[in-house]
Amino acid sequence: MNINLPNFNVKNLVKEAGSTISRVVQLTEEKLGTTERTEYDLHFQNLAERADVTKTWTEKIVRDTESVLIPNPQNRVEDFIFEKIEKSKPKRLSNLEHLALDMIEAGGDFGQDLPYGQALIKVGQAEQKLGQCEHDFIATSGICFTQPLRKFLDGEMKTIGKERGILETKRLDLDACKNRVKKARSMLGQQSVSGWDLMGFPYCKGV
C-alpha cells in the first residue's frame, strides 16, 4: 500500500524553528533588561500609539452602541452568529410592540364600542408605530454607524496589526543578530588577550 506523505522541507523547518527560538530569547532578554534593543523612531511610536488608542476606543464604542440598540446580550450574540453565517436575522418584536399587541387585544375584549376599549386600541396602535420607528432606528444605526466601524476594525486595523507584527519580527531578528555579532567579537577579544583560541589551543599571532 502506497502512502503519500507530505513533502516537508526539513531545512526550512529547522531554520524557522531556530529563528523562533532566537526571537523568544531576544524578547526575554529585553524584558529582563539584559540586552539592547533597537528603538523605533519617535514618529512611528506616535503612529503606533494612535493606532492602539483608535482600536481600543472604536471597539468600546461599537460594544456600547450595540448594548444600547439591543439590550439583551443573548440577542446580540444571536445576531452576530447570523451575520457571520450570512443569514437574515430573526424578526423579533420589541417591548413596545408586545405592549401594543396586548393593549389592542385587551381593547377588543373590553369592547371596541366602550371608551376604555377604544382608548386601549388607539394607544396600542400608537405603540405599534413607535415600535416600527424603533426597528427603523436600529436598522439605520447598524447600516450607517456600527457596521462601518466593524468593517474598519476587521479591515484597516487588522492590516495595521499584521504589518506591525511583521515589523516587530524583523526587529527581533535584527537585534538577535546584532547581539550574536557583539558576543562573537567579545569572545574574539578575550581570545586575543588570553592567547588561546576558541578550541583551547595556544593562539599564535604569526600563523
UniProtKB/TrEMBL annotation:
InterPro entries referenced in this protein's UniProt entry, alphabetically: AH/BAR_dom_sf, BAR_dom
Domain BAR: residue ranges: 29-207
Domain of life of the source: Eukaryota
GO cellular component: cytoplasm
SMART domains: BAR
Classification via SUPFAM superfamilies: BAR/IMD domain-like (SSF103657)
Name of the protein in its database record: IP17959p
